[in-house]
UniProtKB/TrEMBL annotation:
Signal peptide: none annotated. InterPro entries: TPR-like_helical_dom_sf, TPR_5. This is Tetratricopeptide repeat protein. It comes from Humibacter ginsenosidimutans. Pfam families: TPR_5. SUPFAM superfamilies: TPR-like. Residues 41-156 form the Tetratrico peptide repeat group domain.
Length: 158
């Protein structure tokens, strides 16, 4: 019951999230996080997430890593892996971001991992690979020309 109440308040926080007031957002999330044990993986993930959402990527990495190390339910683990990979991309850590994304097996996230993989490849200066990944993901959703898009994606990698 307490976990459900806490999670409902975290969800309400995100519904009302306002990145124009970072100090307030950090303070509100800090209050929520402090209600949990210091090593609570969900609280750590949320603490990383608020920093990430406020553009404080360097401060998000540690909590994300700690949350993953502490153990999360699979769906939340996948979300945090994706968020960490995105954060690492923003910090220029392309190799590590790609490693996380390539290990991420998260069908519940749809094509989100492909989107972030394409962005990371692009940031790493690998534009043809980035476009190939994006086209491959998009091809599966096209009512027509999906096969052509997939072929063009493959050609980019040839």
């Amino acid at each position: 019951m307490a976990q459900n109440d806490w999670q409902a308040r975290v969800d309400a926080f995100w519904n009302d999230f306002d990145d124009s007031d970072p100090e307030r957002m950090l303070s509100l999330m800090r209050g929520l996080v402090d209600e949990r044990d210091a090593d609570d993986p969900v609280a750590l993930a949320e603490w990383g997430g608020v920093h990430d959402a406020l553009g404080l990527e360097e401060d998000a990495v540690g909590p994300y890593r700690s949350a993953l190390a502490a153990g999360l339910e699979p769906e939340l683990e996948h979300q945090v892996m994706l968020q960490l990979a995105s954060t690492l991309r923003n910090l220029g850590e392309h190799a590590e971001a790609l490693d996380l994304l390539e290990r991420l097996d998260a069908p519940e996230l749809g094509d989100a991992p492909a989107v972030f993989r394409a962005l990371t490849l692009h940031s790493a200066g690998r534009a043809d690979e980035a476009l190939s990944v994006a086209l491959t993901a998009l091809a599966a959703h096209l009512p027509r020309y999906g096969r052509a898009a997939a072929a063009y994606a493959a050609d980019l990698m040839a």
